[in-house]
Records
---
Amino acid sequence: QDQPMVLVAYFSQFGNTQVLAEAIADGAESVGGVEIKLLPIDQVETQDLFKASAIILGSPVYNGNPAPQVLEFINSWPFEGRPLKDKIGAAFATGGGISIGEEGVMIDILRAMLIHGMIIVGGEEVEAAFGASSITGEGPFNSSKNQELFYEKARGLGKRVALLALRLP
Ligand SMILES: Cc1cc2nc3c(=O)[nH]c(=O)nc-3n(C[C@H](O)[C@H](O)[C@H](O)COP(=O)(O)O)c2cc1C
């Protein structure tokens, strides 16, 4: 039997969201027995969505909202017959500043996943309850070496989703 597949999909203009996606994929990979696909949203094919047991989707914050590209991506998902129902869904986000959108963006993504009937989950730790996020431009976080805290939560999210994907019927 095929291994369950976890799709980590992201939009990233400047690379921050991609780095967080890579940490999520690392965490999922650490579980073993799960196939991981890490793709920018413009390279995701409909077959990937059908095949995935879990979809972890990430966006930068753009003026308090998900990037429009990410909303368009979700709007393009197959809906007729709700083929994504009962797949696991999780979210991640990066924002330049503290408390100016990243939590809202994760909730926006999760809300759309619920419309598709997905089973939504957050990260491993309570500090990643809505998903994994990172602050990329403000204060001490304005440097890649100070991002480890965020990467740890991202790995935890990937790991949790992969473990749950293995438990799906
Ligand atoms: C058009 C635009 C709007 C933005 N608006 C916000 C915002 O409202 N809140 C925030 O925290 N960061 C905002 N940012 C910063 C990005 O969310 C942040 O730099 C993010 O990490 C970029 O992700 P990327 O490197 O994957 O492209 C904005 C960036 C752009 C380009």
---
Amino acid sequence: MAYLDHAATTPMLPEAIAAMTAQLAATGNASSLHAAGRRARRTVEESREALADALGARPSEVVLTSGGTEADNLAVKGLYWARRDADPRRTRVLASPVEHHAVLDAVDWLAEHEGATVDLLPVDAYGRVHPEALREAILRDPDDVAMITVMWANNEIGTIMPVRELAAVAREFDVPMHADAVQAFGQLEVDFARSGLAAMTVSAHKIGGPFGIGALLLGREYTPVPVLHGGGQERHVRSGTLDVPAVASFAVAGRLAAERREEYAHRIGSLRDELAAAVLSAVPDALLGGDPAPGGRLPANAHFTFPGCEGDSLLLLLDAQGIECSTGSACTAGVAQPSHVLLATGTDPDLARGTLRFSLGHTSTEQDVEDVARAIGPAVRRARTAGLS
Ligand SMILES: Cc1ncc(COP(=O)(O)O)c(C=O)c1O
């Protein structure tokens, strides 16, 4: 068994499981005033402090959500509404074209239902947005920009964005910028205070924590209009009873992700390089995706294009050998669609159908690399033959 799909989700860390199970039997709504409620509240506030510490933020800047998707929606829609309500000219959203669908579809929704104009920022061959491109886009009309959203690191090809430089440009024009740091947290140093961002998304299940919990890091300058209305929890921007066991578990995973990051990134980066070398040696015409420059892409990411192959067939052939990875492209009604990320980087749509993403994580070992090295050559040959028949 080689699980190489940690960018989709990671197995939970034993420490995060222990923190969660310890809370499952506890009673008390963190909003209640009695002793059980106060105990739950204490657990939540201690967890918030641990998460703030791990992310270079203040505890009051951690807005807990049901995950990355909700945090992205709150940032994009909420900041758009807040800025447009304050000045009706502000209806333009600047976004990178390689965002996760949680951002891209929220932006598209604003265009369809709220009169937003969406400017997709130009990217280079690795899907990177350059600060000059952002400046140019803002300068087209600095008065009409509602918000900017550019991810910290891409989930398919691992490209790392120059987030601090981009946020500095946004600040020059007093425009709030949000970054989806779901894939960056745990692999890169994501320090919210130093980033200059107005908002930043993280998710627990990508760092060894549980599903269904995440956070929007939110500075004090901008208050998004809520997406969820109700009890007024989380600074009145995200109502809903908190899932205390998940919050406690997220905090443990977050603390460990920050503490172990450097050593982890080093170990996983070497393993990824070995995996890339093994695949390229077994399939010499395979193309390694992402930016090969040091610090150009996430250490856990290995993305390949196999000319003449359907990624889906290849994935299933590897799955039959116990190797679990992803194509990185969406499948609509059984038809494999080339990924929007690859299309944005100028990849030929036919080539973009033959991609595989291996993403390593805390459970990855040398054995996983050996398993891929052994299986990938025969699988590609079979997938190519199947494609020709
Ligand atoms: C970059 C990125 N953003 C957002 C999400 C969504 O996060 P969640 O699964 O917590 O809703 C993911 C997960 O696939 C992701 O990779």
